[in-house]
Design a protein that fits this description.
The chain is of the alpha+beta class. It is built from 3 helices and 7 strands; from the N terminus they run αβββαβαβββ. 13% of the residues are buried.
């Protein structure tokens, strides 16, 4: 190979090397920019992760405070129901605690003047307290549901089973007033005498035994 040919080969190799250098430089700049972008994204994620526990605690505190206000109203409404129906100076209270990041609520009954005496709502007054509170809570829960996806309709199946007959008219009058105020429709099923519902129910139907059909429905009111 002549000297001239060697020079041409060297120039060609030099151009190839320069072109490769330019490509590698461009690739290096691209990777550098990508690395900077990834670092910024990583810093944002780390910042979010650092903020997440504080945000969670703040949201839990806000939700607990907000739900606490709702519970205060629930306590007042249920206390009113107990006093109106049973005619006793009792107070419905709640114990609230957070376990496993969830608010847990326990309902209790206390007598005015004897706040240290706590009554089990499941057995108090032979079950009548539980009757009243469970209806109240169902009405409250139903009233909070969105109307566009839930019908304002509630069935109470023998919800007065533990109440004394003399308390039934008060019980029915109160839930009828609440249902009207909340614009809810109630279907009440009971084994108590029909006359106990005459003052509160808009319609009364009686299920009468029938030998052929087994039972028939008669409208009483």
């Amino acid at each position: 190979m002549s000297l001239s040919d060697e020079l041409k080969e060297l120039r060609r190799a030099r151009r190839q090397a320069e072109n490769r250098l330019h490509r590698l430089s461009a690739l290096g700049e691209q990777l550098h920019a990508e690395h900077a972008r990834v670092r910024r994204s990583l810093d944002e994620v780390r910042g979010f992760l650092d903020l997440a526990p504080r945000a969670r605690d703040t949201l839990e505190e806000l939700s607990t405070t907000l739900f606490g206000r709702i519970l205060d109203e629930v306590e007042a409404n249920l206390t009113h129901a107990i006093r109106e129906i049973l005619g006793q100076d009792r107070v419905v209270v709640t114990e609230r605690e957070v376990k496993s990041n969830r608010l847990q609520i326990h309902f209790m009954i206390r007598n005015q003047g004897r706040e240290d005496e706590i009554e089990d709502i499941m057995t108090g007054q032979g079950g009548s307290v539980c009757n009243i509170l469970s209806v109240g809570l169902r009405l409250i829960a139903l009233s909070q549901l969105p109307r566009e996806s839930h019908r304002p309709f509630l069935v109470l199946d023998e919800q007065d089973c533990w109440l004394k007959p003399g308390l039934i008219p008060k019980f029915m009058k109160l839930i009828q007033e609440i249902a009207a105020r909340l614009e809810l429709q109630l279907l009440v099923i009971s084994h108590h005498p029909l006359d106990l519902f005459a003052g509160s129910a808009d319609r009364i139907f009686e299920l009468v035994p029938d030998r052929e059909a087994g039972a028939r429905i008669e409208r009483v009111k």
